[in-house]
Amino acid sequence: MHDVDTAVLRTFLALAETGSFSRAGVMVGRSQSAVSEQIRKLEELFGRTLIERTTRSVRLTAEGEHLMAHARAMVAQADAMLARFRAPDIAGEVRFGSPEDFASVYLPDILGVFAAAHPAVELHVTCQLTLPLVEEFEAGEQDLIIVKQDPERRYAASRPLWRERLVWVAATSLGQEFSGATRGPLPLVLSPAPCVYRGRATRTLEGAGVTWSGIFTSPSFAGQVAAVRAGLGYAVMPRAMVPPELIVLRDWPELAEVEIALLGQARLSPAASALAGFIEERVARR
Predict the structure, then answer these.
(1) 112 inside domain
(2) Is residue 228 included in any domain, yes or no?
(3) Rounded Cα gap, residues 257 and 163, in angstroms
(4) Angle between helices 107-117 and 62-86 (to 10 degrees)
(5) Crossing angle, helix 6-18 and helix 62-86, to 10 degrees?
(6) Range of the structural domain that residue 49 is part of
(7) What sequence ranges are listed for the domain HTH lysR-type (predicted)?
(8) d(CA 241, CA 102)
(9) How far apart are CA 226 and CA 212, in angstroms?
(10) pTM greater than 0.70 (yes/no)
(11) Each residue of 192-238: pLDDT tens digit?
(12) Tens digits of per-residue pLDDT, 242-285?
């Protein structure tokens, strides 16, 4: 009988997210060689090649992509079981807001596990741009919100969660050389102002003496991905959120990191406090 170790699945998911053995090792607290050994054993267990190694990065094979959905489900189920039996019984209502890109990538796992552990808690989730979320929070309409912020200009009382590494991305049709992209105004795919990703992109280009043009603006992360995929322009995205069909551009001007933080009302209900602590714990684990 063969069993799948959830610790090995966590390592596989970390490698899928980071595309790097060394960064995956940092996430799961293991050495680079230990990560490589775990992946080798996982491939032996399934009898499938799960990753493709190149000199620059690691990519999932089609079998690896298929396994990722199952791995996420198994890890989430294990986490929900632990949280359910370790946590006290709580009930109540929580109003929670998050940017769309964070919600689409990270929230399904976090909120799914929390909901399974606390079935008596009623979650009301809003996804939109950071500025409207902050306005709703300040008006008392949200208990907790996730925000993107400049580490040098933090929102008052924000609780930093982690730093996002930002990268330039494009469709393969646009090419990768920065020197070739500076012959005219650089076409950009952007979020509406004010947006910390937008600010990082435009200020970095202006600092490099490059003119730019916002040819596509959308509040939707999915809309921006579609525009970049169509070859309309270049964009700035968190490294962990770059879709596999887009390429990360090398040797482009370096972008400063962005901080993801949590804002909570001064007086939180037990249910809202539990969600805040759960988010912080899950983020610390990754």
Answers:
(1) yes
(2) yes
(3) 6
(4) 30
(5) 120
(6) 6-74
(7) 4-61
(8) 9
(9) 20
(10) no
(11) 888 889 999 999 999 888 899 999 998 888 889 999 999 999 999 98
(12) 887 888 888 888 898 888 899 999 899 999 998 998 888 877 65
